Amino acid sequence: xxxxxxxxxxxTAISKFIREEEAxxxxxxxxxxxxxxxxxxxxxxxxxxxxISKRHGFNLGVIKWYGSWxxxxxxxxxxxxxxxxxxxxxxxxxxxxxxxxxxxx
Length: 105
Description:
By secondary structure, this protein is an alpha+beta fold. It has one domain (3-103). Helices cover 25% and strands 39% of the residues. The chain is built from 2 helices and 7 strands. The chain has helices at residues 21-26, 84-103; strands at residues 3-7, 10-14, 30-31, 35-42, 47-53, 59-66, 71-76. It has a 7-stranded antiparallel beta sheet, covered by helices on one side. The termini are far apart.
């Protein structure tokens, strides 16, 4: 599955949400065909990301650290509905966040 990532304002095709140091320092959003992931808050050890519908601009939920499970989780807004492609995009993004969390240890 291929998505898009914005680097210096230009969408770039990627196979996974790869966070390069340049994009990370600029805190640019990550995009797929239907979703945009915006960094909402950067904490000492974790981050909070908004998940936005590209088509309608609605906030669909947030991805943040869930301490009880010691992993990033998606917290959807009430009354939101997701198809398999959107759930896959969210899953891939969370997997990437977990890989980077492990690397930071």
